Amino acid sequence: MNIGKFTGKTKEEALKKAKEQLGEGAVIMNEKTVKAKGFLRFFKKSTYEITAAVEDSPAVAVPKKSPQKAASAYAEAQSPAENKTANAGVAFSGENVEDDSSKEELKKRIDELQNMLESQLKADKEKKEVQDEVLDNKESDRNVKDNTPLIKLIYNALINNEVDERYANAFMSEIEKTLKSSSELDVVLPNVYQKLVLKFGQPKPISLSSRKPKVVFFIGPTGVGKTTTIAKIASRFRVEMDKKVALVTSDTYRIAATDQLRTYANYLDIPLYIVYGPDELGMAVDNYIDYDLILVDTAGFSHKNKEQKEELRDLLDGITDKVETEIFLVLSATTKYKDLLKIVATYAQFTDYKLIFTKLDETDCYGNLLNIKLHTGADVSYLTTGQNVPQDIEVFNAQKIVKQLLGGR
Question: Which tens digit of pLDDT belongs to each residue from 201-214?
């Protein structure tokens, strides 16, 4: 793994330098604004500094696939063979961070995790049954070769966070390749942390370009929080970024949803357009052609409802090619994994999408974020953590989620 620190006048400039040196696969591990120093600091602009990393060779685990392949992948995932452990692995170079400051930044992010794991390891040594707890059930399906307490502890943390056993097994098999003769916590934990961050990749939030407007669709099951999520994003762009934003809703099945969105539109002083069919969407877009951003709320439906699925397909296909479009599949972090697999397979039948996870404040298990990311190959964009508008939304931060997956708080 290659890790380096890069600076620029903007985040984009620093990231560009990172990708020029490390390649397009570079992932941000840490970022900060560096204020100017010295007597003339008030006349100087701050710079942006990022710490980026890239793996020396492709990670093992599950190969990335587009969301359109998720439907067939789901069928395959239901076969008994999928529970078999992925045995392939790659050797970890063990390359150090390029300088002391970069190393210190990464060290700070794992200190808390290390203290927690060291305490747990001490307890495991006192009680043999705790050491073996992770492999008590379905031992034949869990092919973790190294039975040391450290390996079990990390594996146990992933399983307790409801990471799919296939992904946990494949990941631990990959980590075992990096251990060699050393199993010290301060060697293994940074490798585990960094590799999990890299598996999530870079977040892909909404970005505006010179081509106006950008039309963004929000799709997903009923009750996952699409309307509230739209209000949060609309508020960010309208209030914080001073952009021209319009709302469109095609959810005419639920009067309450339209009323809720109208309330937000009135509060933000932005227009709301109600469409009753795919043919009216074009008129709505033409009506706001000089706007920066058009956010489209759609009706949620069960993955079993074929009629509503076709209506959504027609709506997405009806947009003009004169504007840029993005589609976000909104999922609840509280939904069962088996149901999530069915949901992503349904929507993958007719569109590509990026992911938004809601209701993280209602669960302590974040394993499904990693499961669905690896299963679909889709980019994760936003997370929501409550009902407050616009506060309870943030751009996806892989470092925070990985800390949770490894048992940190």
Answer: 999 999 887 777 89
